[in-house]
Inverse folding.
C-alpha cells in the first residue's frame, strides 16, 4: 500500500496547475444557491453496441420502493403505492412506513436494489449513458466473482479538475479499494467523467441517471451508497450531499470547498459526513472568507448543524500531524467528522497515507 501510494504522488503533483484553480476565489460568485437539483429518472446506456433504457428505482411488481427519504425493499406497484416493505415493515412507494426521514439505523440489514437476483451484463469497463441530452461516459469497477444475490456497497467517486475517470481508477478509487480488500470486502465502484474540466449543475442529473441504471442492472445495497472525491471532486461530492441525502448514506470530501461549484437549493436534511483539509492549503482553504462563510470550516459547521451535533466554540484543528475531530451529540445515524493536518492541497499525506485509511474507517461503520 505504501509503495503504491507514493509511486502515484508524482502523478498528482503534475496536475497541480489544474487543481489549483478548483477552489480559487472568483471575481464574482457563480454559486447562486438557487434552483433545484438535476432531475432523476433513467437514461439510455450504450454498451457493447446495444442500447438499454434505465429506469427509476421503483418498479412494477416486486422491486424496490423509494420514499422521499429512504429506500426499503417491498413488493407491489410503482411510486404511487405498493404494500409490504422491509426494514422495517410499512407501505412501499408512497413513502409511508419505513424509517423516519434520513434515519437509517447504524448496522441495518442490507436493502437490495432491483438488480439483485438478476444476471448482469455489466463488467469492469467504461460505459456511455444519455443524460441531459448528452452522451456521458463513466467507469464501473465490478467485484471479482460478482454475486448477483449479494447487495454490495456502491461508491460514487468523482475526479478532480482537469482529469477523467481514468485518473480516479488509476488511484484505486482514492485508494479505497485496497483498504477494503485488506479487510476482505469488495464493492462496486462508479467513476464518472465531467463534461469538460469542471463539474456542473447537470452532473446532479448524471448522478441520478447513472444510479437509476445501476439500480436495475447490478445488485447493491441501496442504503449503503457512498460518495467521495478530491478537490473539485470533493466539491461535487459536497454539492450532491446538500440535496441527495435520500440516495447517499455517507460522503467524504477530500480537500473540498463550498464555493466555485454549482450548489442546489439545500434541503438541510442530515447526512453522515467527513472531510479532510490541509491547514496550509491555498487552493481549498479552511477559511477563504469568514464573512461570506467560504471555506472547509463552514462545510463542517453546516453538516454539524444539519446532523444535530453540538457546535463547539472552535473546531479543534491541527497544523502538524493529522487529527480528526468527531462532533459531539450528533444524530446517531449521522456521524460528522473533520480531519485537519499541517499540509497543502492533496489526497496523499503520510506514510502510510492516512486519508484512505480514515475514509474507509468512516464508511465501513454503516
Amino acid at each position: 500500500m505504501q509503495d503504491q501510494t507514493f509511486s502515484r504522488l508524482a502523478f498528482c503533483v503534475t496536475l497541480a496547475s489544474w487543481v489549483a484553480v478548483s477552489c480559487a476565489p472568483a471575481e464574482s460568485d457563480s454559486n447562486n444557491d438557487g434552483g433545484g437539483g438535476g432531475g432523476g429518472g433513467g437514461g439510455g446506456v450504450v454498451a457493447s453496441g446495444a442500447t438499454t433504457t434505465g429506469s427509476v428505482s421503483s418498479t412494477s411488481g416486486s422491486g424496490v420502493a423509494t420514499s422521499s427519504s429512504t429506500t426499503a425493499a417491498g413488493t407491489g406497484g410503482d411510486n404511487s403505492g405498493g404494500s409490504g416493505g422491509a426494514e422495517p415493515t410499512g407501505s412501499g412507494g408512497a413513502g409511508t412506513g419505513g424509517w423516519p426521514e434520513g434515519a437509517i439505523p447504524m448496522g441495518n440489514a442490507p436493502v437490495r436494489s432491483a438488480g439483485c437476483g438478476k444476471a448482469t451484463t455489466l463488467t469492469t469497463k467504461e460505459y456511455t449513458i444519455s443524460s441531459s441530452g448528452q452522451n456521458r461516459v463513466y467507469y464501473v469497477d465490478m467485484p471479482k466473482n460478482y454475486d448477483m444475490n449479494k447487495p454490495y456497497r456502491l461508491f460514487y467517486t468523482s475526479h478532480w479538475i482537469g482529469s477523467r475517470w481514468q485518473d480516479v481508477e488509476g488511484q484505486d478509487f482514492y485508494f479505497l479499494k485496497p483498504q477494503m480488500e485488506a479487510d476482505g470486502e469488495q464493492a462496486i465502484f462508479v467513476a464518472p467523467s465531467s463534461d469538460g474540466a469542471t463539474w456542473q449543475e447537470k452532473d446532479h442529473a448524471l448522478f441520478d441517471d447513472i444510479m437509476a441504471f445501476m439500480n436495475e442492472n447490478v445488485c447493491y445495497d441501496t442504503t449503503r451508497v457512498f460518495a467521495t472525491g478530491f478537490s473539485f471532486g470533493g466539491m461535487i461530492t459536497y454539492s450532491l450531499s446538500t440535496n441527495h441525502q435520500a440516495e447517499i448514506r455517507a460522503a467524504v470530501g477530500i480537500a473540498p470547498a463550498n464555493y466555485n461549484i454549482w450548489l442546489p437549493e439545500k434541503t438541510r436534511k442530515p447526512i453522515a459526513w467527513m472531510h479532510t483539509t490541509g491547514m496550509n492549503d491555498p487552493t481549498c482553504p479552511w477559511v477563504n472568507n469568514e464573512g461570506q462563510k467560504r471555506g472547509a470550516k463552514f462545510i463542517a459547521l453546516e453538516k454539524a448543524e444539519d446532523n444535530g451535533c453540538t457546535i463547539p466554540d472552535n473546531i479543534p484543528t491541527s497544523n502538524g500531524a493529522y487529527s480528526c475531530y468527531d462532533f459531539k451529540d450528533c444524530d446517531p445515524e449521522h456521524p460528522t467528522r473533520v480531519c485537519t493536518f499541517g499540509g497543502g492541497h492533496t489526497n496523499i499525506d503520510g506514510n502510510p497515507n492516512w486519508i484512505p485509511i480514515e475514509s474507509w474507517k468512516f464508511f465501513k461503520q454503516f
Notes: The longest strand covers residues 220-230. Residues 202-217 form the longest helix (16 residues).
